[in-house]
Each structure stands twice: as structure tokens, then as C-alpha cells.
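Quick one:
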Amino acid sequence: MEDQSAPAVEVVDEPAPAVTPPSETIYRHHLPTRIWHWINMVTIVIMIGSGATILNAHPHLYWGNYGANFDRPWYNPPHMPAWLTIPSHYNLALARRWHLLFALVLGFGLLGYMIASLINRHFQRDLRVRSRDLTPRALRHDLKEHLALRFHDPADPAAYNIFQKLAYVSVIFVLIPAMILSGLTLSPALDAAWPWLLDLMGGRASARSVHFIAASGIVLFIIIHVVLVLLAGPINEIRSMITGRWRVPEEKP
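Output:
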């Protein structure tokens, strides 16, 4: 006889624990890009340090052909501290040697990177700015994604967003070439061989100002770049610039 006093036991199906899929790894940075990145890291640091020493020798900027102590500058940069300059003590001749040596590294490095990026289609594939990228809707969307610390598109993780494209294009095609051309204009020997440089820059004093503005733009780019790398995950970002392979961050629900 069945016992009617025993309570009924309700069986509840518990959901299976969620299994987190492994993160996808993609090949994002080609070898020429990685080599140029690390060479530039050393080059720019030395050029900024030696340039700070040169700037300390005459910290006044002018527009036109000439500029001297009694002329009215448009800007007086602050004195650069010793920990920022190369060498750490005041030695203008040595600073110029460091600056000119690594200016050659910067110029030929940029040339090699551009040739390699045209061959492997890096410019066309990754840095091409399309009209749809510049629409107000697209810009607002990318700005919101940056403010939410989401720096990649889940539909196409390898693609650069519009702010990355604009930043890299500005540095590669505007700031570095402007810094190289203005630096060449500051050489009296090259002025004699290429007099069009002075006309292009509007004078030697103007070339010095353009050189300072372009260098300041690169410094600003480096600061923003480092901050974003730290926010995006420095281990993953640095590893990708060493090996070329980048682990796609998992999307938060």
C-alpha cells in the first residue's frame, strides 16, 4: 500500500554552468609595423631629449626669416629640466650630434615603413579614411565607445576606429614629415643646396616654430597613446606589438 503521508519532492532542472568561450586571437600588426614602432620609440625619446637641450639654448620662437634676443617672440617655451634633456648636463654640441643622428633614423625609418605599408596594403586596409567614417553619427558612436572604454568593433575586431585612423594618419603624413622638412630647413648647408625649403617654411625662424609645433603634436600623441594602451590592457597591447597577435577582449554583457 502506498504511503500517502510522504511529501512530494519537486525536481527542478538547474541550468548548466555557462562556459566562457576562449578569446579569439587575430594577427593584427605586420612585421614592418612592429619594427618601425619599436625603432621609433627609441628614436623619438632621444630626439625629444636632445631637442629639449637645443631649445634651452634659445627658448624663444619667432615667425619670419630671423629671430634674436631683442625680437618679439610669439611663444617662450618653459625651461626643460635636466631629467628630460639629453645629455642631462648642458652640452649643445653633443645634443646636436644626438639629434642629427637620430633624425636620419627617423627619416629613413619613415621611408622604409611607407614603402612596406604600400606593398602589404596596410595603408589601404587599415588607415584609409572613408566618407562614412566622418559622418556625425559615426563620430558620435565612436566617441561613446571610447568613453565606455570599448576600443574595438565586435563585428570586426581587427579594424581601426575613426579616431585611431585620424591620429595615425596625422602623425605619419603630417607631423613627422613637417618635422623632417622643418629640420632640414634649419641646416644652412641644405638651404644653400635647396633654397626652396626656406620659401616653403617662410624663413628659418618660421621653420624652427613649425619644428616645435610638430614635435609638440607628436608628444601629445604619445601621451594619449600610452594612456589608451593602459586603459585597453597593456599586456595584450604590448604583446601584440611584439608578436603581431592580438587577443580580442571578451565583450561584457
